Amino acid sequence: MDKNSGAWSGRFSEPVDELVKRYTASIPFDYRLAEFDIKGSLAHARMLAHVGVLSAEDLAAIERGMAGILDEIRAGRFEWSLDLEDVHLNIERALTNKIGDAGKRLHTGRSRNDQVATDVRLYLRDAIDRIQAGIRACQMSLLDLAEAHAATVMPGFTHLQVAQPVTFGHHMLAYFEMLARDHARLADCRKRVNRLPLGAAALAGTSYPIDREFVARELGFDGVCGNSLDAVSDRDFAIEFAAAASLVMVHLSRLSEELILWMSPRFGFIDLADRFCTGSSIMPQKKNPDVPELVRGKTGRVFGHLMGLLTLMKGQPLAYNKDNQEDKEPLFDTVDTLADTLTIYADMLKGVKVKPEAMRRAATEGFSTATDLADYLVKKGLPFRDAHEAVARAVRAAETRGCDLAELSLAELQAFSPLVDEDVFAVLTLEGSLAARNHIGGTAPEQVRAAVARARAAIA
Ligand code: ARG
C-alpha cells in the first residue's frame, strides 16, 4: 500500500501505477499555493473551533503545527512528496506527523474541491494586486515621457504612412489610456475572484454547522459563493483574468512593435538603454531590441493560456472534475509572464532616449501638414472637397520638386488656389498644426500637459 493510504486509498486493492501517480499529481506545480493553503486551513480551523466542532486545544495545536510548516516551507526545508499527490495532502500529512490526531481533524467539513478553489482565488487575488501595481508603474513611466515630450513633434501615422503631426507625449498618452482600461478591468475581475468557495465541501455542502461568513471575513473575501456546485467547479474568474491579462499583453505588444520600428535606423526615432538590448555574435554593428521583441512573442503564449482555460472548461459537467487541476499551470504562467513583463517594461520606458531631430525630419518629409492647408482653404470659404483636391495637386508638385509644402513659394501655392495668402506659412509649420488641435484629447502641447496632470491625479 502506498503512502497515500491515509488520504484515500483505503478502498483500493493495489498501489497506483508509477506513471499514473506522476500523471495525476499536481505537487510539481501546486506547491506554489502552499502559503495560501495554510492561510485557508487556519481560517477553516478557527471557524470549526468557533462553532464548537473543534476543541480549543486542537485549534491551538493546528496553529502551532502550521506555523512550523510555514517556516519550513519558507526556508526551503519542507520535503514535498509525489506520493502525496498535491499541496493540500502534503501539508495535511506534515501537520498530522507533527501534532497527531488534531491534524486529522482539520479536514472536517471540507473537501479538497472547495479547498483548492479557495487557494487559487487567494493566490490570484494577491497576483492581481501585484499586477495592478505593475500597470501603475508603467503608467508612471509613460507619464514621465509624455511630460518631457509634450511638445516634441513626430509624425502620426495611419496605414504606417505619415498622416499628421502629433507630439511624442501625445503618443505615449495613448498607451496610458490602454493601461488605465486594463487596470479597471482587473479591478472588476478581482471582485469576482474575491468570493469564498469554502463550505461547498465536495459539491453539496456539509452537514456540520459551519459559518461561512466567518471564514470569508477571516480571509478578506467580500462574500461567499452562493451555490456549492458552482463554488467548486467555477473557474470563470481564472478565464476572466487570462482575458484581461491578454489585453494588457496586446497593448504592450503594440508598444513593443513601435519601439522596435522606431529603434530601427530606418526610423531612428529612439534608442533603448543598452541593458534592454543584445548584440549579435556575428554582426558587430548590431544592437537588437530583444526585450520588446520578447514581449511581442510572449503575448502569444498568454493568448494560448486563455484559449487553454476556455477549452478546459467547455465540456465539464458539474461539479468538480480532475480536469480542473489543469487550470494551474496556465494561470501561474500567465501571472508570471505578465508580472515580469510589466516590471521590465516600467524600467525600459525610463531608458527610452528620444531623438527629436529625427522625429521632426520625418514629420517634415511626409507632407504631414497637408490637412492643415486644406482646413486653411475651407476657413477661407472653399468647400472641403475642393480644398482637398487643390492640396493634393500642391503635394504632387512638391513631391516632384522634392520639397515640403512649406518650401513652395507663395506664388507657387497660389497657383493651386487664389485663396492662399502670406498667412499660409504659419499654418504649414509643424508647431502651427499641433497648436491648432487644442481641445480635450487633442495633440496640442498645452492639451498634452493638461492630460498628464489629469492622469497623475487619477492614478495618485
Ligand atoms: N490537486 C487537485 C486540483 O488541483 C485538488 C483537488 C482534488 N480533488 C479531488 N477530489 N481529486 O484540482
Q: Which characteristics define this entry?
A:
3 domains, two-stranded antiparallel sheet, Fumarase C, Chain B, domain 1, 460 residues, single chain
Can you give a write-up of this model?
The chain is mainly alpha-helical and 460 residues long. The chain has 3 domains: 16-108, Fumarase C, Chain B, domain 1 (Orthogonal Bundle), CATH 1.10.275.10; 113-360, Fumarase/aspartase (Central domain) (Fumarase C, Chain A, domain 2), CATH 1.20.200.10; 361-459, Fumarase/aspartase (C-terminal domain) (Ribonucleotide Reductase Protein R1, domain 1, Orthogonal Bundle). 63% of the residues lie in helices and 5% in strands. The protein has helices at 18-24, 27-30, 34-50, 56-74, 87-99, 101-105, 112-148, 168-193, 212-219, 228-233, 236-263, 290-314, 328-350, 356-365, 370-379, 384-401, 410-414, 424-428, 430-436, 445-459, and strands at 153-158, 161-167, 195-196, 223-224, 270-271, 353-354. The strands form 3 sheets. A two-stranded antiparallel ribbon has the order 1-2. Strands 3-4 form a two-stranded parallel sheet. α9 (212-219) links the parallel β3 (195-196) and β4 (223-224). The longest helix is centred in the first third of the chain and has 37 residues, at 112-148. The radius of gyration is 31 Å and the shape is elongated. The model has no long low-confidence stretch (mean pLDDT 96). The structure holds arginine. Arginine (ARG) binds at residues 26, 30, 86, 112-113, 116, 322, 324-325.
